[in-house]
Amino acid sequence: MTAATQHAPNSQTRTAAQASTIAAARSQARSEARRSTMNGWLTTLLVSLLLIAIWEVAADLALTRLGVMASPSAIIQSIAANPSLYFNAVSATAWVAMRGWFYGNLAAIFVAVVFVQLRAFESLFLRLALALFCLPLVAVNPLLQVTFDSDTAKVVLAALSVFFVTLVGTMLGLRSADGSPMTMVKAWGGRSLDSLWFVRLPSGIPAILTGLQIGAAAATLGAIFGEFIGAKAGIGVLLINGLMSLDLGRVWAVAVLATLMAAIPYGLFGLLRRWLTPWSAGISSAAAVSSGPRRSFAARSGRAFAYTVGSIVVILLAWYAYLAVFHLTPFVGKTPVDVFTYLVTSPTAAAKRSVIFEALGVTLVHSGIGYIAGLVIGVATAVAFVLFPVSERVFTPLAVALRSVPIIVLTPVLILALGRGLWGVVAIAAIVTFFPTLANTQAGLKRVPADAFTLMRSYDSSRMSTLWRLQLPYTLPSIFASARIAAPTAVLASTLAEWLATGDGLGHVIVNSRAHADYTGLWAAAAILTAVSLIFYSLVSWAERVVLARYAPSYNS
Amino acid sequence: MIIPSSRGRRTLRAVTVAVGLATVLAVSTACSSSTPTAAAGTGSAVTPLTLQTSWIPLVQFGGSYVAEKEGYYTKNGVDVTILPGGPDVDSMAAVESGQADIGMGNADTVAQANANGADLVIVAAGFQKNPLAILSTSANPINTPADMVGKKIGVPTGDEAAQDAVLKANNVDASKVTSVPVGFDVAPLVSGEVDGLWVFYSEQPIAYEAAAGKPGVTMLTADYGLNVFAQVYAVKKETLADPTKKAAIEGFLKGEIEGWQNYVADPTEAVELTVNDYGKDGGLTIDEQTKQAKLQMDLLVTDETKTNGLLSMSSDAITNNLATLSSLGIPADASLFDTSLLKDIYQGKSSIQ
Known about the structure:
CATH architecture of the largest domain in chain B: 3-Layer(aba) Sandwich
CATH topology of the largest domain in chain A: MetI-like fold
Structural class of chain A: mainly alpha
CATH superfamily of the largest domain in chain A: MetI-like
Strand content of chain B: 15-25%
Oligomer: heterodimer
Largest sheet of chain A: none
Strand content of chain A: under 5%
Number of helices of chain B: 15
Largest sheet of chain B: 5 strands, mixed
CATH topology of the largest domain in chain B: D-Maltodextrin-Binding Protein, domain 2
Number of helices of chain A: 21
Number of strands of chain B: 10
Shape of chain B: globular
Order of helices and strands of chain B: HEHHEHEHEEEHEHEHEEHHHHHHH
């Protein structure tokens, strides 16, 4: 190779000797890179094997006896003993998840196109979409049960689980179209639809694919949770039977399979995205808040107020429309007026309110502590990965695996491991916040341009200073993007754990209301929880705008 | 301008992949949805009915499985679809919303639903005794409610009122019993986190024995004042007002009783149907389900059913039910139960042929 370079025609003023030195250095660098990649893979492999070995020993020594954890060999035995059982369960759940994933994403992409083309629709209906995302699953499940037949209900639940994230991602993608191609289409007399077809859709594809990728895991979660309203086959059925008979091998085999069901499509769609849209390597998996056109403060707050009121009206109308379109029996389907009466005007309203608000306080403590802990630890871990690259090698496989565990499977497993106290719930809320934060922060840190590093080096900046002054500010948009999506997820996770473990908070109120046929109580608790999640999300968005305007002004969505 | 053109090709590729994927899914969905659902075109007089069970398929519903497989339903003019339940299912809401014609639940859940605006009536009672039980370890046993004093009891969401009622009925000071919320597994008892656990009499004790290596102590709350029927069959009141529909429900009950008679005579068929057919994807074992089926006999068969037949609702038992409901704070009166169908079916006998 060196020889070939030597004899290559040299158009520049470089001498043959110089060229040869450069080529030698390059080839050395390349083989070093290859070797370090090989070493990296080897480290990852060895560490993974070591972790599995530790798991095996710990399980055999104590954890299985305590009823906490099955060993990897017990899991493999459980699957090997009855492969067709697990195959049927996985295919039953996967079939529901696939359909939910397909329809949910189709609807999300369609709605995103409408929103991008017609901005007023977005202002009025985006919060409705967000409200659907914030609805507590524990309340949605029994309602879907009486709305649709059981198969459709499961597909709808899976579709609902993927809808919002793809919607937001696609909108971001469609809007990411460069200014100049859009201008060009306009200059050539193209209409809005032309720019949609020639510019927006092509540039939106990476973001859409990212949505499809993330949606695979969300759809799996929705499909498993749907089995809790009645199923003959599926991962959820095996989980329930496994828990009832305390068959740890089965419970953990289900956890591993559910994780693979989420992780494999995630990986495949990642590959597909890189193959289809190689230019998109740097696209964040979560979307940033879009900044609207600048207007005066008064005009902006006036419009914001009008759209907020409009959105609330839209959400209430959608509530009525749902009851009317599906002819929900009044026994189950309660209107906003029923909820208002229940909470405000009925003679027992004060008692009901105090129950709900006390429970809300508990849920906020669970999700708040868990959320903040998840964010802080997530960012800290990503930073540690940058400072100590070897730790990244060691822990990334573990993080990737754990982030794919569907929360409905994770919750009972974590309760077995951590107990049912406050910290069990907090840990669950923290974990669902931690993994996306870690992944997004890692991705954000990797996108810092090389030039900026060169600049910092030329100032002889220390590693910490580079991190603090350059890398973290650059990463803020990614951190916030995941913080926003994680806010309702932390609330959702808390309610799930409250149902299955602690028996307090709004999760308990919702399930208890259903157990006592108090559907107004269920709607009231769900409405308040959704409103709180919406506010939580909006507060994070607001903080995002303020912080990004101050620390990352160059960042455009 | 190399990038845009390669970008264009990639876009085309992406669109092709997307369209291909969409077609595959759309076609497969269409195929699956066009599959005819069990056309029961045998007789003209066969009425389709839907039964919503309360949990995922287990031998708990074995009698219904036998009735369907042995043709006891169709013999009586009904074609029954048995819907599986789960932890998040509400059978009463399913009946009230018209998703199912018959829902399985407990007498208290039906009364609760009625108190909240439903109009349901119980036509038969599968479990004469409420299966809610308190499981404890043999080293630290809870044999009577008085033993609960000073202990930590795991109570799943929804059963808190039942615990209060049991303690009250037996004059035990509720403030001396610590309640801990739990799910539906016996892990907290195995690990020693709780001293007692609210369980389903015929299910979790089996799992506990398998996990702990020795049997636990089970206290059936029905023996201590919690007298509510369980696994009752509830229908809408308006269903019974229509003579044709009432006849169909009666036909269903006849088939159901025959199914459970078969089960009581020998549960082997019910167990096999559960493990190999209705619950075949649930990973159940013959051994475990046989144990469950045997324990369940204590709930199904009582002195009462020996004279009045299975699924019976005697007036004494109804009085006891109403007393317990009132102690649970649930308003109810005798109109919650309609015994006319059972009377019609049994005609004073204690079994049907």
